[in-house]
Amino acid sequence: MEIGSFQGYVAGVLGEPWQSVDGRLASRLLDQFLDQELVAAAARRKRDMAIPLDPGKRSAAVRAMLEKVCGPPPTPSAREIDRAVAERMKVIDPERVRVRQMLLDTEAEARAAERRLRRGADFVELSRQVSRAPNAQDGGSLGVIGKGILPADLEEVVFALRPGKFSQPVRSPAGFHIFQVLEKIPAGHPRRSEVERDVRRELTQNDARAYLRQCVDRLAKEVGVRVIPEHLWFPYNGRYSEDHNGSK
Asked: Which of 12, 96, 130, 182 is found 20 to 30 A from 230 (Cα to Cα)?
């Protein structure tokens, strides 16, 4: 591996000069870069093309190669899912609300938005037009939240709203919020269908990560990876501090 390729990768990932990156972050990025190089080396044996240096294209290319090199990851068994769901169903959730918000810079802007809502403006469309919240284009959805998530003064306003109603402008350090509650979910056991969906997704993701990590470790042992600290501009303390053949 040429050190210049890794330096270009670091700069591309972080959007800043590679010289300014601290050792811990640079070590993690080098581990990531070497993992990708291992996958690419194994893929080339299968006559696949080399991976690009651009971080976004590189990640997509590596994901495509991983399944070819490692095979499809396992899926969680029905027994695993049922056991995890049963544990989650023992938990009693607090009262929750499904809510969305607009965020405006000034009280005048917030009052103007409130007047438009009272005249019948659609919350989602108005959010796209005037809100500066990061998710404004999605209608400002905050999803389902329970008590203790929002600051106390905002929480009091949100949980006092009836479904379908929106609040007056509420000030916070971020600006002026207008909240709309879409649904109130009373305290109680979670919905089994939602729990099963979340458990299935989480177990699938965790199993896939563990499987692919084992695959990359196996490739590293087959190829043999050695990092020479003298060739780096930072103190390396990553997973390849010792090569996978056991030598220093």
From this structure: 12
